[in-house]
Amino acid sequence: MTVKSKILQLYHFLKDANELRFRPVRVLAEQPKVVRLADLPNHPTVQIFRPLQTETTSEVPETLLRVKRPMLTRSPTPPASISSWLLPNWDDPTQAATVAESQNLTDQEGQTVTVRFDDDHRRRLDFTAWSAQRNAWVEPELAARKAMTFFQLFYDIYSLVEKDGEELELVAADGHFLWQATSGVDGVVTINHPVLLKRVELRFDPAVPEFTIHETDREPEIYGALFVDLRDVAPAAIANRKAELEASGCHPLGWQDTGAFLQAFVQTVSPLDGEFLDAPPGDGASATPRLYRDPVLVLRKRVAGIASAVDAIIDDIEGREIFPPALAQITGTMDAWRGAGLDNGTGAGANGLAAGFSDDDILLAKETNEEQLQIIRRLEHSGSVIVQGPPGTGKTHTIGNLIGHLLAQGKSILVTAQTAKALRVVRDKVPEILRPLAVSVLGSDQDARKHLESAIGSITERLTSDTAEGLLDKARRFEAERRELLRKTRQASNTLREALENEYRPIVVGDRHFTPSEGARFVAQHSEAHGWIPQPVRPGADLSVSEQELARLYALGTKFTAAEEQDARLPLPELAALPSERQFEMMVSEYQHLLTLDLTFGANRWLPSDRGSEALEGLANELLTEFSDGLRRQAWRPYAITAGLHGGGERNVWERLVTHINGTVEANSRHALVLDQRPQLSPAMPVPKQLEVAIQIGKHIAAGGKLGFLQLATRAEWRLFIKTARVTAGQPNHPEHFAALARLAELKLCRLSLEVPWNSMIGQRLQKAFSSLGEEPELACRALVTEMRRCLDWHGSLWLPLTARLKSEGLKLDQLLARIPREASPISEYLAIEHLVSSILPATLVAEASRRKLRECELGFTRLTNLATEVDPTAVRRGCVGRITEAVRSRDPQAYAAALDYTRRLHVVKPLVLERDALAGRLRLVAAGWAELITQRAPPHDAGTIPGDFTMAWTWRQLHDTLADRDRLDAQELQRQVDHQRERLREVTQKLIDARAWGKQLERLQGNQSIRQALVGWLDTTRRLVSTRQLDRRQDLLLAARNLMRQCAGAVPVWIMPISIMAENFDPRSTRFDVVIVDEASQADLNALIPLYLGKQVIVVGDHQQVTPLGVGQGQAMLNNLRQAMLQDIPNAHLFDNLSSIYDIGRQSFGDSIRLVEHFRCVPEIIAFSNQLSYEGTIRPLRESNSTAIKPACVTCHVDGIREGDTNKGEARRIIDTIKAMLRHPTYAGKTIGVISMLGEAQALLIQSLLHKEIPGVDIANRRIQAGISGEFQGDERDIIFLTMVDSPPGEGMLRTTGEGAFEAIKKRYNVAASRARDQLWVVHSFDPDHHLRPYDIRLKLLQHVRDPLAYLRANEQEVGKTESPFERDVLKLLTKAGYRVRSQWPVGYYRIDMVVEGAGRRLAIECDGDRHHPMEKLAEDMARQAVLERLGWQFVRIRGSAFYRNGDTAMRPVFDRLRELEIPAEVDADVHAAVGMEMKLIHELDALMQNGLPADESPADTLQVPSESMPEKQAAPELDGLVPLPPDSNLAQIEALLRGLNGDTLREQFLRDLARARGFQRLGRKVREGLEAELEMLAQQGRVAIAGDSIQLIQTTEAAE
Using CA atoms, how far apart are residues 623 and 507, in angstroms rounded to an integer? Predict the structure, then answer.
């Protein structure tokens, strides 16, 4: 429910936002374009064909209107006698031709005379005769020019439809409704609009040229939006009239039947007041609804379909439970979406990640790249994919490839966009075998019907010729074959990569690194000198020992004898386990001594034990220490020990003594703190009393009391104490004094309490009384505190552990203690222990220790005897072990010493032997034969030194064997295998896609007999419609075709149409697509949510670095309140406005985008600007600079233009003239042309108007010549693009800086504009960028780039030059020597090729593998680069450096073979510098064409301007360099007459233009200007005119005045 409510909330917001944005147009004049048929001129070029009324029905003609381009003619040429007298505009048919009344002339004597026109009778007759001719010309010419006005009007409509056909539609309309009504939303509104509409189609035939309006299959409609929110209008009545219209099909251009319907309609709206008029009324709208006939053609916006679609979606949401994941992501309800199980429990996207899905399941019929694979992977994983497609990166190709893959999965697809131009070529990019399954509906009903007929015809044909089972079975066979091909291709590719890696992988020998080419050179140079290391060696292995280790290996052979080496290889005893010579000698000596002793004493006192003697000796020492004489002399200790043993009160007495000592010490410490007061107690008072008094006085003073007379009068003890006690200051009177006295009293009391117990317990036994311990006796007492505590704990902490250890050693201690008699003494227990320890235990312990030592000696001899068995049972009598055991058996210390010394020698030798074995073993791993000779000490390996320079020898052997091993892989042959397998793989993949896509399609259709019948029925019905003109019969057929189409639509799996047209054709309640693809999504506004609702999976393709479309970004403020009210809790709700596109919403919701980076459109010089401006240089251009003959790629063109408002006529003129020159130049044959205004629509409209007037329509159509702004070209391209900057130099200073703009809008416009041209980009400007633009102006960046488009590449070019290797130079020399034309480091857009051989118009790319200065890790990129270039048609051959330097002829043979196969001959190299110098030749030729003017066969009348009153805006002649030569004769009198007609005073510039027009020139160019200014200067010198600054004035002479 959370998902549903949020999605419903989103689409309610969309509905309300559209209602705010698209209010119904109620006044006809507010529509984009209106053509009133009654205003059409009566001219042969204009023909109207209205439905033909018969007795029973009406017949509707297929063509409703024809408008041809009329032929305009010039006015008859005036006779020479009057031409200089004619005033300006004499050739304008809308104005009368007049002459000047008089002229000032100069007679032969140089005097100025005034001549009147009427003075010459012949001149008057000539004027009369010429005027008659002119009058005969005027009337038909006016009609023709009026017809031209309408022709231009239809041209404007046609241009608008071409640019925005998805948003605009042309309708025939009648039933003009005039009413002032009340709207429930807008209040009082005026309705002045037709109500009966029918869509028609405008076509243009440029060959005639002619515009025609054609009938369509769309039914007539009532303009219901007029009445939706009007009060007092019954919706049911309007609905009834709609049903009636659907049945009757009344045509807006019809006769009586249409009139009757309209008359009934007005009665429906207002049964009482409604009026049907026979003619348009003279007044405006009133409260009375009135309707009259006045047929018109109306160009209007498509909005009805959008509103209906949103309403249908809202209705559908209510009854639906499953929604696309894209909408859950947008509304932030993805967790709830998954929680509802809508992801089938996978946690993934629409269908979850397909089980076992891999790249092998991706079926792409055309060339592909990694980004396309990423799109499909992510689509499978998440169901919603955002794709960034920078300009020219193959978005349409990608979509076409994706369609093939999706069709092979049996999916239905909708491809949509905001504009039709983005979709024009999508169907052409669909694999050809699948194209019949795709229908493109882009605005033209005729084209849409053709596509639909083709699709349904193909589907019907396959239904009759194939079966789903047969096709799917065939698909399974192709799939098996494809998987096997994939396996083989991977295997071959891996092998190829290994072969190529062999040429990049360095050969490392020791610390030296060789490229394979260097290795080949080394082997060739040192094959004889360093081949002494024998085989076998392991190829590719490093020498496993260093030079020092190898020298060590040789030296170790002399460090020990063979016998020592043999004994050292045996197991050796650990020296630590063997007694030393001294130990062995002592052990033998002690053993012999013990044998002489009686060891039976005290044996009965011990239990049997196998313990050693060392522990007993340790116990004996501890007992001796504890009962030493020093401790025994301390007479008080036994009493303390006994008290600790008994515990209780006895122990408490000693504990109290310790406490007294510590307390007294602490009192002493406290007293020491106040010694500075030198306290002295009173001799007259007892110490305890003094302590009490001192404390009392201290508290009294601390409480704030005084020691005055009154206080002391009643306290005698206080007085006595104060009087007799002393401190440093004398009598005490301060709290510190009494505190010091109290501490002294406290110390004395503590000493008194300590003295008695000390003397009784310790002093009398030590003969040291307490009073004899000094001034601070407590400190002397403290010295015994630690020992007191030890004695109190002695029995438990010391004696009992000792007894436990003695018992553990086997001593029968309790028996011994029981036998000791007790004395009558308070310390009898201690005395018994002391007697045991001092008298009994010493001899007992010594006897037992001796017995144990004897046993240990015997065990030691036995262990040494058994050493051979323990170390190595197989070598009892060999090596050092044999010698040791023999010495032990004989108890011979000297023999043992010798054996032990030999053992030590073997311990020294053994690591040397092991080291030698290890070194030899390591060497044996890579050179077994060499290691064997060294270990055997075979000459010359027995001398202890390396025989020669082993490094060079080992290097030679390794390089030789490694290169020989690498030779087994032939990269060229492997490449051929891979190419063949890939080509076969493409063929099989295409067949698999064809079989699977058609199989799944037929599987869906074959079981549905009704669809099969509908398909055939629709085809037959549409064919019959073509020849049916009767209105009633045609209406029946149209109704039948629509009903059949509803059933047929599901049979077409791929639909391509703009959002607005999609909304008109599909019902969201019943239509679903498996995948919806939104192209150019950065131009699509929030209405793109409509197709997103129809798709289970979504791919959004756009680019946030490009401009938003016209309309996105408008009306921002009016959405704020609506958004805040309706989009609560929707993520990023603040961004749901007219500034955001569906691409922006997708970026916020669908995760990271996949960026397409391969650029196919522009040559590198053009796309470099956008690449650096917006994409950090990540775009990879793939076109070559020389892929086009049009040079240079970037052109700057400075003109002397002036900005007037938002137009610059100078720039416009130059662009038109250049285009006309291009149309005549053979190099530009067939090239398409576009013009983009960088400063608003006004300049584009000006240029578009000039295009229509001056360039034949057939050229405009064929060359797709169009002027517009950046947004109108987004998603489109041209071969040639002109950018007009419009701005001109300011009066002073610099132009205002143009930055990136708010939301980077200006930057985006420049990105789009600069990336539309495929071959050539012109920037036409009127300012000097170096003087009029600031450094950060984006226009400066553009012009700097266009002036030097490869500047940013120069540093890279230098680096690239450094990468040329000696190998490449050697190959180039061989090819050049053979006579071939070779170019090294050939640029192909983003990539480079080592070298290219050219000849006979063909090329072969040569890659030199090896001797490179980049790491082997780049090889994958190198192979990917080759794959990309092979997709572009390049042929490659590779040369291995390692093979080349061992046998150059053999290595070069595949190159020359391939050159012969491609028929590339040896050619003499051309002059490269001459080619560079020719780059500007084309521009010079265009300039020459413009200088030469129009060709001789071009009619001057074709360039005539339409009269100003017939055009929406008068177009003044622009200022450009003149292209028409100055006439030889100049008539100064005409200048005077013209000035006189202007009241003798005017602006100089305007006068020059008028004068040029009067002379018949269409342009005021440089040459014309110079000639006319020379005439003015002549008149000024004669004093007939005055020129001051920008003005010119006629000087009135006396003759003239008379």
Answer: 77
